[in-house]
Amino acid sequence: MAGALVLMLAGCSAGDAPVPVMPASPQPVVFSPGSPGIGDPYFPSAGNGGYDVGRYDLKLRYEPRSGRLDGTATITATATQNLSSFHLDLTGLTVREVTVNGLAAVTGAAGAEVAVTAPVGIKRGKKFTVVVNYGGTPQEIKTPVVGPGGWHRSARGTYALGEPFSAGAWFPANDHPADKAAFALEMTVPEGLTAISNGIPGRSTSRDGRTTWRWSQAAPMATYLAFVAIGKYRVTTGSHQGKPMITAVPATMSPNAPAARALARTGEIADWLEKRFGPYPFNAYGGVVIDDPGLDSGLETQTRPVYSRHALDGTSRQNTAVIAHELAHQWFGNSVSLTRWQDFWLSEGFATYAEWLWLEHEGGPTVEQTVHEQYTNYPWQVLPAEDPGPDGLLSSGPYERGAMALHALRTRIGDTSFFKLLRSWTRTHANGNVTTADFIAAAERISGQKLGEFFEVWLSGSYRPTY
Ligand SMILES: [Zn+2]
Fold it and tell me: Where would I find the Peptidase M1 membrane alanine aminopeptidase domain in this sequence (predicted)?
């Protein structure tokens, strides 16, 4: 204490003679391992700490007969700490060689992840490149509480798909939406098969009885939104609003099948959503219908949602509502992404609400009728929308209760403020990550109302709110 006081007094006195500056003794930089998880309370081992991925470049080759996948992943990342080693999420495949900035790295298994020791410590803020040469027979990822995701192989085709995790089944990744990155895929398959994925198509080339398909998505993408579907597809290539529109249905599907007809309305539905939510956030459009009895819904894979054939075999109104739901996610969930899975309602509540808006537009029940029915039957005591627990992620909490909270907000602040809020939200947080607190703050700013208690009641309260 006394020493500090003396120094302070000395510092305050004016007119001191300059003190010679001693050369600073070089401080050794301490490099430490990145954490094995990105810090999501629901899935502690999901994702990884210590770095932020900027881009994935995958060059892969798939053999449908043997089920083997082989190739390289080039990952460009930035260290977020002085980094000695880090994890990559990769399950069920064998790593043959890893280099970091061109130097061979030591690797080891760490549970379902790969631990990589950097040959030379990487300083915080430095970009680095990891090349992983790997292969094997990819598997499903069994997430006990949510259901399988990952790599699915069947007689009718193969696809990589799944939420909240699927990337780690087919490429090494920081597999959590808090670390979004650009993505490019080259997939080589036997000639006659199609490999379709996210974003803009590159030129496909054929050689030695094989075709290489190229796809890229420049806008940052959460890893669970990356997909590939390999099989016999009828691909329709066109453009919409000056951007590529690429849709694919199983080659055996008639263009008049309900699923194909609903898919053909993708551009019209996206434009309808754009009027309500603001500009369409990505540089490509599309959708893929997959014929697999084991797949019973869709997923909002970026720029090109995947739909189970069974999800699109209802009436035209039902089928297009599914498409409206997955397209709405391009704004909510894909461009404006979660930071933690407990805020899943920021993705599913909005997509479900978009579905209700579309049903009303198509002459189905009005939003008011849908909300009334949900409100009456909802188990308010037991199922919150926000923070429903990992086993409640796919329950009606984030979905229907989240959508009801949005409708209650619209009723409270009025149509003008509500849709202004949605457009402001998608613009402000485009290509970013958000939390529930961010949304409440935005709603309060735009409406000029205090809404903390309102959201508490609608999202988390254990009784039926007044409506
Ligand atoms: Zn959804």
Answer: 267-458
Chain centroid to CA 264: how far? 24
Last residue of a domain, one of 225, 251, 280: 225
Q: Is the dihedral of CA 335, 339, 344, 346 positive or negative?
A: negative
354 plus 435 within the same structural domain: yes
Q: How far apart are CA 199 and CA 217, in angstroms?
A: 5
Binned at pLDDT 50, 70 and 90, residue 143 comes out as low
Determine the pLDDT at residue 140. Answer: 83
- What letter represents residue 353's amino acid? Y
Q: Is 319 a residue whose pLDDT tops 90?
A: yes
Residues with CB under 5 A from ligand 1 (ion): 348, 351
Q: How many angstroms is it from 262 CA to the middle of ligand 1?
A: 17
pLDDT tens figures, 335-367:
999 999 999 999 999 999 999 999 999 999 999
SS3 state at 146: coil
DSSP symbol at 30: P
Give the CATH number for residue 77: 2.60.40.1730
Mean of pLDDT values over 277-290: 98
For residue 290, report the distance from its CA to the centre of ligand 1, in Å.
Answer: 17
C-alpha of residue 20 to centroid of ligand 1, in Å: 65
CA of 396 relative to ligand 1 center, distance in Å: 11
- Quote the ligand 1 centre to 394 CA distance (angstroms): 9
Owning domain of residue 387: 338-460
Q: How far is the CA of 350 from the centre of ligand 1 (A)?
A: 8
Indicate if 108 and 241 belong to the same structural domain. no
Using the mean position of ligand 1's atoms as its centre, give its distance from the Cα of residue 325 in Å: 6
